[in-house]
Structure to design on (415 residues):
């Protein structure tokens, strides 16, 4: 019988162990399925983010293409700048077309071998003019630009002389001397006019590119004025700034960062702060402390007033909770001792008209006693009551505050 029961216990234990293994396997499968689902959701979120980033990038590219298309469209419109730039090039082409045939005929009339001289002479003027534009674009030295201008004008002047001589020779073709001279002047003018028009065009484009936005110009002017004032006012800091910029690798530190570091090195304080500023600040704080002390408005008293205002909801009148005036001393802290404040007495805050012996003894009011009891609870016990904080809480004379304090203390078993 015992062996059968033992076998039953073993079988039950084996069943429980197998059930635990099955539960563990199910839990493992559930965890793996949950992890796979989490990974799938994370992958989907990453794919969504990538897709959104790609859409935003494509939208930026589309906007850039639209801006370029609008800019290209504006370039094709008849704006004054476009008319001037393209009209000048058209005049240049007309002048070259008018001056080149006369040169070719002139040299060919001498010999067919001189046919390339006319195009070469005219081309030299235009190549040198284009060289001036290239020198302006690359910001080459001024002497290079003037050299190219001289060569261009020299070639154009020689071509103009050839055309003028050709115009005078037209008297052999039935023109009068005056008419031939007019033709010669006209050919010379268009020969010189083309390069001159192109040069003026280049000057205008260069000057217009150098025009600065009015706001940027005002900012640059203000910056230059500030640097000038800095050199005049803080010479030692400017010297240190130069040392920092010279010692640091080129381009690794900006002038403003160097200025901040130089200020700290020389003045020993953050920007805009000096030893004099700190001394003046301390003097001002001392003056404020002196005024508060003379007016019996110490920081501790102000803290108590704020606490009482939070507890009892007192308003902040001119005299504060204590009912005393806190006027500014005449002449300030450095002007001498402040005038004595007017003593105010009674709960009505009236000036004291007589001595304390002459004033009738006022009975303690129950409302005042309740207020002092609340004050004692807020301060942590009746032993923390004093004539000052009771007087500030009630707004009464010192004698009345003493009697209130003693009455509440006697209720609490203290004297």
């Amino acid at each position: 019988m015992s062996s059968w029961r033992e076998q039953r216990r073993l079988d039950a234990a084996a069943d429980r162990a197998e059930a635990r293994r099955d539960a563990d396997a199910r839990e493992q499968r559930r965890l793996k399925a949950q992890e796979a689902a989490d990974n799938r959701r994370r992958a989907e979120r990453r794919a969504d983010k990538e897709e959104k980033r790609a859409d935003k990038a494509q939208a930026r590219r589309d906007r850039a293409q639209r801006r370029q298309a609008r800019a290209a469209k504006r370039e094709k419109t008849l704006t004054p700048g476009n008319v001037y730039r393209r009209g000048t090039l058209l005049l240049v082409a007309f002048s070259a077309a008018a001056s080149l045939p006369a040169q070719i005929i002139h040299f060919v009339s001498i010999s067919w071998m001189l046919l390339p001289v006319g195009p070469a002479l005219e081309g030299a003027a235009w190549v040198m003019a284009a060289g001036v534009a290239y020198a302006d674009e690359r910001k080459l030295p001024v002497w290079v630009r003037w050299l190219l201008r001289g060569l261009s004008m020299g070639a154009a002047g020689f071509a103009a002389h050839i055309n003028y001589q050709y115009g005078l020779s037209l008297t052999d073709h039935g023109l009068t001397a005056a008419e031939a001279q007019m033709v010669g002047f006209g050919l010379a003018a268009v020969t010189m006019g083309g390069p001159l028009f192109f040069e003026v065009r280049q000057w205008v484009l260069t000057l217009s590119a150098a025009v600065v936005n009015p706001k940027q110009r005002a900012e640059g002017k203000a910056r230059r004025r500030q640097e000038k004032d800095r050199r005049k006012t803080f010479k030692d800091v400017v010297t240190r700034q130069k040392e920092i910029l010279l010692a640091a690798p080129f381009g690794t530190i900006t002038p403003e960062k160097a200025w901040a570091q130089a200020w700290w090195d020389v003045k020993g304080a953050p920007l805009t702060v000096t030893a004099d500023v700190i001394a003046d600040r301390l003097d001002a704080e001392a003056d404020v402390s002196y005024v508060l002390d003379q007016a019996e408005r110490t920081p501790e008293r102000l803290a108590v007033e704020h606490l009482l205002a939070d507890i009892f909801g007192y308003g902040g009148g001119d005299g504060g909770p204590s009912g005393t005036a806190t006027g500014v001393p005449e002449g300030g802290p450095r002007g001498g001792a402040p005038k004595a404040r007017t003593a105010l007495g009674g709960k009505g805050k009236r000036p004291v008209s007589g001595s304390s012996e002459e004033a009738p003894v006022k009975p303690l009011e129950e409302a005042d006693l309740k207020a002092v009891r609340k004050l004692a609870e807020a301060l942590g016990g009746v032993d923390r009551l004093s004539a000052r904080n009771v007087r500030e809480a009630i707004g009464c004379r010192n004698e009345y505050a003493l009697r209130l304090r003693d009455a509440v203390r006697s209720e609490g078993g203290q004297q």
About this structure: The mean pLDDT is 77. The chain has 13 helices and two strands. The first strand starts at residue 344 and ends at 345.
